[in-house]
Specification:
Length: 982
Amino acid sequence: MMPIAVVGIDCRLPGAPDKDAFWRLLMDGVVADSEVPSQRWDVDAYYRSDGAPGSTNTRRGHFIDNVDTFDNDFFGIAPVEAGALDPQQRLLLESTWRAIEDAGIDPRSLAGTPTGVFVGIMSSEWSNLQILDFAGLTAVRGTGSGYFMAANRISYHLGLTGPSVAIDSACSSSLTAVHQGCAALRSGEADTVIAAGANLILTPSLSIFYTQAGLSAPDGRCKPFGLGADGIGRGEGVAAVVLRRLDDALADGQPIYAVVKSSVTNHDGRSNGITAPSRRSQVELMRRALSLAEVEAGQVGFVEAHGTGTVLGDMIEANALGDVHKTRAGEPCLLGSVKGNIGHTEGSAGIAAFIKTCLSLHHGVLPPTVFGDNANPALRLAEHGLQLADGPRKLPANGTLGAVSSFGLGGSNAHAILETAPATALPVPGAIGVLTISAPSAQALRRNAESMSAALETLDTTQVASWCRSTNVVKRSNRHRLVVAGDRDTLIDRIRQFAAGAGVDLVSSTPPHRAPAGVGLLFSGQGSQYPGMTRRLYDAHPIYRANLDSAAAALDPHVGSDLLATIFGRTAGLDHTSLAQPALFAVSYALGKTLLQSRIRVRFGIGHSVGEIAAACLAGVFTLDTAAKLIATRARLMGALPPGGAMIAVDLSVEQVQELVAGEPGCGIAAINGPRSVTISGDADSVARAETLIRQHGGKAKTLATSHAFHSPLMEPMVADFRREMAGLEPGPAEFPLFSTVLGREVDGAEMTVDYWAGQICSPVLFFDAVQAALRTGRANYLAEAGPKPALLPLARQGGLPPQTRSLTLCSGPDSDGTELLGVAATMMRDGYSPDLATLYGGSAGPPQRIPPYVFDTSSRFWFDGPITYRRQPAQTAETHAGDPVGEPADTEQPQIGAEGGVLALIADVGGYSVTTLGRSKRLADDLGYDSLLQLRLLDRLRAEYPPLHDITVAEVLPRSHSVGDLVDFVMERLDEGGTAR
């Protein structure tokens, strides 16, 4: 049978708000019982110690906290609908989201995929109360009720297109859901499956039933296989697991808790009572599971039994287990039951036991079973080859098999065999990463940032990179994002700054982009080189290292030396033109290549002088080998010219400089870098005279440290030799737009012949013109400089770069710490883009790590005062305050008076919102949960409230009313037409 991997887990169980707390509760042997909460029912009204008709014999049970809280805003559900939802549906939505995150998956990335949802659920007391309130029955109460919606609501809100099924087989419902999910994966009907279970105890009805049936323990506790077993104690809980085919999970590098080797279901048939378990059926069930898993009973290390703690149920189950295990040799099979800790959670009992089994295999320990003071000797466990786990039991280090059973009242049974997950690769050590946190609102972002900060404080510093990589994948898709780069202490410090109201530059509220980021690439010219350039990046970044090694290998035969040694300052010569230009080319090429590999879209490339060769090579105009020959030949011939000449940078306009140097034929303009940034080059005497004139006219001049007067007539003697050596140069088409600093316009790759490069040697560098031409063709999201320090970025900014085009630094200069590419990743992700993180990190970080799940808002509570009136109690918390530094600005355009105010009030009333929360930018569907039912109700109210709107149709208003502002404007236009708007 095809193995199925359990890759994600989330649960809310009595005494345990998450899976980690659940594991601690199990290991500590805690019994999480309490008196029935007053919110549920008046326990005194129904409790009778003698279990008289119509009463329950216990005041206690196992309950989860805060079942009335729900983060409806996160799921885009209007308050009026949230109040009508069965709380089991609400809790399933939240638990499913967290389980998917735990699997290392961005939940929003599953939209449109054939992901299946199977939910075990056996009671819906909230729904019963709603449906029987005939006078108060509404559309949202109808969709908020019913078992069918338990799974369908998950599929709807996550956009899943696979099978979506709610399953009621009583107490075996949720383990049957796991079984059906595994079957869907094996059949190919789904590629990912969410299996879940839910049970809430809202009325005393089932407690009364259990009492009258003689199944209820007076103390409200289950004592599975214990001497004092006297019935069940009821429990509640919500849990979800994420399942994948094992091969798929391994291929995607997902962390795995355990592997399902087989799962089976059957029914008792006609036995000695519809509520009595069948020993024969249980034996057949377990033997079939063993056969499908292709294992022997003696290989099973433990069984997580149904173990309700009823005298009859325990006896039949122990005997059935004995029929399977009593002949085993060696160690007895360990026996456990989670019901001793959390009670019998009915519809979610199977998945609670399943999760305990997964966690036991994951941790290599079987927790103790709480069964009272002594095991029941009448069960003859030892004779049956069984041993009750009366304390934590270490499981074999090389892995083991575990089984889990769940038997339903009515005869529907389920059983699964699981094994320890296969060993997976360890995370690649890395102390620096890019942390991503996202949420739908600024307040939610702050709440989740605090959770991340707490987790970081206990994280091993060597795991920061792989841990952060998991946040990049899982936590990226909500609108408000906090993205920071650094080591663990830096990350914690920046998060704390954000929590304190600072660090606004670390956050963004732009929607995620589907298209890759558009980047304009600048390639540095000679003069930006320095010994040791990019050394830190080279040491830390394998992909950059490979790219630089490739460039150096292509250049070494032409330069006749170890170019890497020159670049890193181990040998002298970097100041000599013959090595400076090849070294600069190698660094620019490697930086640009690394950025290109990160899944960006190059909007344009501009190379400053020698930088044009790197630009052309990366655009595919030349191969690396051809470009290496081109740059090395150029550098060697220039370096062989007699030294001398001079270059100065001037802060006057081009026209002023041209006028001043007109009388000096020995020098001229070498570069136009900006509207008041010009370089003059030529023989030393001519440049000196020009400098005197410039200063006399109020200009400033700075002497540049160069070996030659580049881009001046002094370069002319080497042009003929250059033409001869590069004859036959065959350029190809450019793969992205190139803007020439020779021509000041876009240039086709085919134009970059030997004539082009020969002319470039003495021609002025028209950098400013090239930038202007590039910006006129289309806006780049970013401008990045492929060079050892940001020399061109400031010039481009001075030349009129739009303020919304942000700068990316690939290497910051001599003080570079080698983390700039991580900063690039942080900037892009903060802005909603999804670059290839493996490239920007420098390689794989290994398998995903478990990271903290999303922290939902608990300030809104939805409950009922009796069967008719819902109560919403939005608590005011410290995180809701004015002057929030993050997120959308306060909407100051809320219409509050006249007809506009009336329309806004109507929108608020239909959805159950406060008017003050409805800004014009709020999206009706995505933000406020106005689905088809609420939209129709809103239109009906508009027609009734405003007679001129009597004839409006759904097709007329909804396609053009995406936001609150859209709808208000539409109504006002129609009222203005009828003369009734004011």
